[in-house]
Amino acid sequence: MGKYFGTDGFRGEANVNLTVEHAYRVGRFLGWYYRKNETATPENPEGRCRVAIGKDTRRSSYMFEYALAAGLTASGADAYLLHVTTTPSVSYVVRTEGFDCGIMISASHNPYYDNGIKVINGRGEKLEEEVVTEIERYLDGEAGELPFAQRDRIGRTVDFAAGRNRYIGYLISIATRSFKGKKVALDCSNGSASAIAKNVFDALGAQTFVIHNNPNGLNINLDCGSTHIEVLKSYVKETGCDVGFAYDGDADRCIAVDENGNEVNGDLILYICGKYMKETGALFNNTVVTTVMSNFGLYRAFDREGISYEKTAVGDKYVYENMARNGNCLGGEQSGHIIFSKHATTGDGILTSLKVMEVMLEKKETLGKLASEVEIYPQVLKNVRVRDKQAAQDDPLVQAEAQKVAAMLGSDGRLLLRQSGTEPVVRVMVEAETEELCEKYVDQVIAVMKAQGHVLL
């Protein structure tokens, strides 16, 4: 991770540690960098540098959109505005319509006052580290000034809402069956999914019930969406829906709820889809890519079904890198970032919900029955806000306590201590035979962090 860019772009509190000046300079650099390779293509006969920009519903997203567009056009690139849309839709448009790169303005599941700049390369993937390094050098004034475009080389902004509509059509085309007769609840988190999800499910014939679909710029992720799944759990039971899906702010993750109001997280979705894909001959290499956060129970279920698995560092970026390197077609995280590489190069919450619906319909089973085949181990994860996450994690006394806990857990559990890639947070996670043991051991490690003065109270 760099000074500004973490595992999921440049993220911070709007106009505090992520400012309009940062956004303008990121736009200036990207417009200059990609303009160097301008070539004519069928999609772009003039050979001009073209960058697609999408945003979520945060109030500050509009401010950053204009700052990025100003930077891009000042460097001679054309900025195509997708308006409010999802991260995976930007990835789709970039890779299918010949854009040089794409930008998504979003802080994902963070509160409304945070925001972020996610840059996507021309293949629809997270930006290469070497380019990120060059952006950071420019932000710090180490790369010199860039030339301004002049006269007819100055860029322009283009309304490109049509790109978002093409993405909606693409999602609809992926479904294998009509959803007619199915009652589906969607929690759009007052975010990007508000502009897309209901249209897709309505077009496929579902009886669609939508909550948290009225963004006002300040309510994104506020007690709703994939990070507050309890709201959808209650709603599914009250309305008698067959299934529910909750998205995060930029709709690149999905958590499901079964007909009984039980949560079906990313691990369970990986199992349900992985087993079905193996049965249908669609699971390349007979392998599912997970992260180190996945539950023991998932691996035991995969072992039982004869499905192989890989483990990566936390972050859908690392999951996708493994998939691309090894030719695997299904991977994801417990948090709901699921990648189906046949259809997408990023996690896609709405696509994930369509694939879960496919399994339910093709196997004629409820989601509860499909998920019941995995016995999930108790797991407690606590996010600890700290002054310096590297210092907190590397503290010798904290490490000693973590090793002591790991020894006590033995082969019946595990402890994971890791830094967040997007927040000043150290995550402490324990899996064990009981919830009580998980809580006890997590709190033991946190107590040492507090005693050492790392924790922000």
Summarize the structure.
The protein is α/β, with parallel strands linked by helices and 457 residues long. 39% of the residues lie in helices and 20% in strands.
Helix/strand layout:
Elements: E1 5-6, E2 9-13, H1 20-35, E3 50-55, H2 59-74, E4 78-84, H3 87-96, E5 101-105, E6 114-121, H4 129-139, E7 157-159, H5 161-174, E8 183-187, H6 197-203, E9 207-211, H7 230-239, E10 243-247, E11 254-257, E12 263-264, H8 266-279, E13 287-291, H9 296-305, E14 308-312, H10 316-326, E15 330-332, E16 338-340, H11 349-363, H12 367-371, E17 379-385, H13 389-394, H14 396-409, E18 414-419, E19 425-431, H15 435-451
Parallel strand pairs: 3-4, 3-5, 4-7, 8-9, 8-10, 13-14, 13-15
Antiparallel strand pairs: 1-2, 2-6, 5-6, 10-11, 11-12, 15-16, 17-19, 18-19
Describe the structure.
There is one protein chain. This protein has a 7-stranded mixed sheet, sandwiched between helices. A 5-stranded mixed sheet has the order 9-8-10-11-12, sandwiched between helices. A 4-stranded mixed sheet has the order 14-13-15-16, with helices on both faces. The relative contact order is 0.10. The radius of gyration is 22 Å and the shape is globular. The chain has 457 residues and is an alpha/beta fold. The two termini are 26 Å apart. It has helices spanning 20-35, 59-74, 87-96, 129-139, 161-174, 197-203, 230-239, 266-279, 296-305, 316-326, 349-363, 367-371, 389-394, 396-409, 435-451, and strands at 5-6, 9-13, 50-55, 78-84, 101-105, 114-121, 157-159, 183-187, 207-211, 243-247, 254-257, 263-264, 287-291, 308-312, 330-332, 338-340, 379-385, 414-419, 425-431. Helix content is 39%, strand content 20%. Helix 8 (266-279) packs across helix 11 (349-363). Helix 6 links the parallel strand 8 and strand 9 (207-211). The model has no long low-confidence stretch (mean pLDDT 95).
